[in-house]
## 1
Amino acid sequence: MNTIPIRHKWEPYLWLLPSLLLMSIFVVFPIGIVFKLSVSDISRAGVVGAWNNFGNFRAAFRNFRAAFRDPAFGTVMLNTAIWVVSVVGLSTLLGFITAMALNAKFLGRKVARSIVVFPWATSLVIQASVWNYIIKGEYGNLNNVLLNLGVIKNAVNWRASYQIEFAWECGIGIFVTIPFVAFTVLAGLQSIDDAYYEAATVDGAGFWRKLWNVTVPLVKPSLTVCTVLNIIYVFNSFPIIYTITKGAPANKTDTMVTLLYMRAFYDNQKGSATAMSVIGFAILCVCAGAYMVVTMRKEEQ
């Protein structure tokens, strides 16, 4: 009987070690610090004190109760829901379509893939700053291009109201998220054996039947992982909204994350804001866990 060499037992862990170290330094350690701050007294100067017997959480819940009476709170929660649902939903749909297109064989496919990945590879702050300049009123690039093409005769105010500004922010969020979805789904598409499509063709299946009966079921694991990560990333997304509007006017374009930032660094309520971020973390874990459980049960059926 052949035995596995001893080095093979620890070799996988050696290859995983760099990733585990990076996750520990940049993910696990910061989360631990946030949990520590959430149960500690923090001065206005940012000095961390002793354990405060969950005083920050009590303050956070008091703020939540007071916030329910604040008209801005309902707006912020509605904005957060619209932001997450629209960005995750539309980027998933458009990303799937993009992945299907990039998976097809055509001249210049490698160039097309490089172009598609560019918005995702660029910093969100840079992306938001560029788009902020594009949609500026009279001197923005969008107006200049449309005026030069003769599409419009006068400059258009693309930011006439906070609703339009928030719609632009959602659109930018979708634009920068599509590449992530596309390449996650593309990895799943490339793992599908061509024999499945050949068998479906023999059975007389057309494009749509192949899509619903072959492609979607086989790529569903990639879509599940992609959607869960997307919900987390989009919920915690900060640069786009802060760069373009900073939540103005009067929290009308704020989401929960930008509101927490303002509370921590503008209102100097770091303890309460940290406790609220832990509550948000728990909500995300519950939502992501529920989504994965429901999806897995559907796959088992």
Note: The mean pLDDT is 82.
## 2
Amino acid sequence: MPIDMPTLLLAIVVVAFSMGSAVLVSGWRLPTRDGLALWGLGLLLVAAGFVLFGLYSWVHQPWLLWLGNVLLALSFVLILLALDSFHQRRYSVWCLAGPVWLVAGLSWVFLEQPRLRVPSVNAVLMVQWMMVASSTLRCHNTSLDRGRWLLLGGATLMALVYLVRLYCLWGGCEWGLELHRQPELPQVLTYLACLVGLVFVTLGYVLMTREQAEAEFRQHARLDALTGVPNRSAFLDTFQHVLAQAARGHWPVSLLMADIDKFKAVNDTYGHLAGDAVLKAVAQRLQAGLRAQDTLGRYGGEEFLVLLPDTPMTGAATLAQHLRYTVEQLAVPWEGQTIRVTISIGVYGCIPQGVQDAQALIDRADQAMYAAKRGGRNRVEMADGLLPVQPVPT
């Protein structure tokens, strides 16, 4: 059954308008950095552009073609801005405004010369879709793979459609030169490919935003909201995994339990907001003193755990002394005053044998930490004996 040009244009208008409206609704009141509003507006401009092309096929006013081409170029700018917002990077003004000015100028200069206007505008639009594909490729977040590849496939398909159209136009085809003509089958296929491409890029982008939101939710669910370090549940998961690896490889694992001395006095004297500031500052100071393979976690209240893979107990005690000293030198500014705190640290280390109970090992480090408290605070206690406090040079 033959398909006429108005039907093709109407199909694109309906699909673009429906998807644009759906994206706008789905992105309502969501963070603007997701770019969903920009993407939805871009699709609405695509629909508006093809409405103008449809009107031209009836009233034959050349300015409708000019405005429709400009709207298409602007729609791709909004799509690029959406990707820009999502990836949190910035395109240059020339990359965004240049294609629009080119389309506007070429469409106006060649308004009465379709054999020059149509190929030149198609070439610019092809470059814009190539920019969309390039921007998608530069995203290396593994959690976005499904959406990224779907978007990349759609953008590549759109660029290929314009490339095919250019090849056929330069080969003497009359595609797009007169919109009122009955389209040939290859031309119908390119329009259908455009529909598929629009669906793919839009679904890909929406999926990317959803995947990122889910990844951020999982990450935040595993982090302590105040200090930004792994929470108790996340730390225990990591600890159990490291213990299993250490048991297979027969290498030592050490654990530090650090507790802020007289933390209740800080809250009572300066208030709980000051206590929160102290907790964040101590967490940052502890984190700064660790290696990349070490893990710091908030165990609860003012207690922190430090997991040290492939570290014997003596090495862990040395690091604990360093951490104790750096916290002792910490000065937390608060409302014109300076808050100073110290920490007591318990150290326990072992070479795991078979399946180990992470909680049992934590209890050993916890007992050592309380021994440090009883011994006068601001000191390090090993689970199998006292380690004298020694100043650590800066």
Note: Residues 5 and 183 are 6 Å apart (CA to CA).
## 3
Amino acid sequence: MEQQILIKGVEWQGRSTDILIEGACIKQVAEAIPPSVGVVIDGRGKAVIPGLVNAHTHAAMTLFRGIGDDMPLTLWLKEKMWPNEAKLTYEDVYWGAKLACLEMMKSGTTAFMDMYHKLPATAEAVEEMGIRGVLTCACFDHFKPELTEKSKQKMEALFAGTVAYGSRVKFALGPHAIYTVSGALLQWIDAFSKEHNLPVHIHLSETEDEVNNSVKQFGCTPVRYLNKLGVLSPRLSIAHALYVDEEEIRMLADKGVKVVHNPASNMKLASGMAFRFAEMREAGITVGIGTDGCSSSNNLDMIEAMKLASLLGKAWRKDPEALPAGAMLHAATAQGADILGVKTGRIEAGYLADLCLIDLHTPAFTPNHNFVSNLIYAANGSAVDTVICDGKIRMQNRKVPGEEDILKQVTEIAKKFV
């Protein structure tokens, strides 16, 4: 028999509930489940939510937290990020990614979509930390044919190498943006992803400058450009999508493209605020939430990201009923899981056992008239007490094995970036 975990008396949808986990999956969710052989977790005084899904980040950029703050996006990339990224070693990325996994775990995230360099280093970190990572091979060819061919070879080699990792690590393709990746390479990536059924993730329509330059360079806006290239598909998810019109939303919906909202970095970099969450959802687009990297959002707290997404959406619309708390939790769990292509994000029998227990004995949940409202608007990641991923306890009583060593190692490594 596979290992079992029984969570007793935890609050779920306003009721005391038992959850039986067997192996990597949820076996049963019921009012009362008789104790069996295995681990029993006392869920009294706690509520359960699906593990949160961070649908867009750059994990190892934890190393750059606080570097390049309060700068425009273009200058931030050219003067702070790209020069420092050129210094990164395998070990740097490994420890930066371990810190990211620790930070995500401590704030309730059990799965994330990453776009970064030195993918094997991040994969190694994810394997060791015990959460899930859909890891994209970040690529740039800067419209140079020789770099296009090198990028193709790199992606093929990395894809072949991912068979060495377990089921919690998935390979994906990460063309950076339309201003750093040629149309020819984007089309090759689309064909490669179709052949191997791989997710593709790209930054798109993040700033007004990007849209204006797209019109100058390609004769159309970013979404229309990708449509013209023939690379819009259900395998594609796009980060940001701040500047899209009704026709572009329809294009994305018709092609099954998914979208990730990153409210913290959009506000901090002043990229824009009018993310059309409601219109996209009404059109049938799957919309998730991401934190972006720590260099542009400064933390990886998805509970904070849900609050920011809701408040920002209400503010620019001047509509207090827009983007309610329940919709934000759905976007950060079930919708995020759909973007990553992982059977998680829901508390139902047959789904992967990725769960978080929230401590209700805190000021944020006192009184607890509405748990979801308190979670989104009052709490933050520190409310997470226990994290289970893939049917294994990864954090309990807010303690993660080895966290002190991770903090110490990253503190030393990060000194060279100052």
Note: The chain has two domains: 4-50+348-398, 52-340.
## 4
Amino acid sequence: MQKNNIYLLIILIFTISLFTFHNEIQFSILNACELFITKVFPSLFPMFILTDLLIYLGLPELLTKLFGKFFKKVFHTSPYGAFMFFTSLFCGTPANAYVLKNLVDDEKLTVDEANYVFSFSFFTNPLFYLTMLNFIFKEQTIILKLFLIPYLANIITGFILRPKTINENQIVNNKPSKSLLDILLESIKKSMNTMLTILGTITVFFIINTIINPSNNPFVSGFLEVSQGLSHLGLSTLNLNIKKLYTILFVSFGGLSIIIQIKSILTDTDISLKLFLKARFIQCLVAILLLIFSK
């Protein structure tokens, strides 16, 4: 009962704020939609479609031949773990959550292995991240260093959290009986439903930021929504070292908005976010240490 009262109070404050900050909230909604249309949708939607098609065409089998033994030895994963990791490098998060769900639904990854592999496959879309780095920083050496640190931090995090036993599951060559066109049409339908959820989540967090962070403090913005935090960071007059630290923290933690998007994508699966969230704090710590020692 007490929890319900707290929720009711939060909703009441939110409702009052909608009227009090009516113009500001309208502006934030438009900004959220603009971000979605110009940055998020163009970078994520094609990746959703592409990953479905690549799975159908046998990319996991190819990655198995190239990297399967290495991932089995270093990270104790099956070949599909290698596929999940490299797909994440390419498409970023939360697009890789969509891939993870498909692999679990198709019984190509066990839930336990999915929990582990996802914990160290947390990447910002590389094109988006590089665009934001060039917006915030001008020196190319800084941009390169900040671009590489999250990747190295993920690898170290994966090694820290790796299971004691080696997963012996192998790639199963069981192509679906559906045609490539059927796979494409199904992928479009699933992807659009996912994109609408992402749009709604981003919009809600833009509204929350407008209400609780009217001064657009970059740290608060980045904690809530990473793209908005990076945008505010680029416009701020903060010290260069603080900007570098915030950038690394934003992309290592990902922001509450990304976590909610992942949760929505993984609905109806047994995948838990406990290890994933633990890994985010480990990755933040590792990334900070890498930043300090790379000076």
Note: Residues 21-293 form one domain.
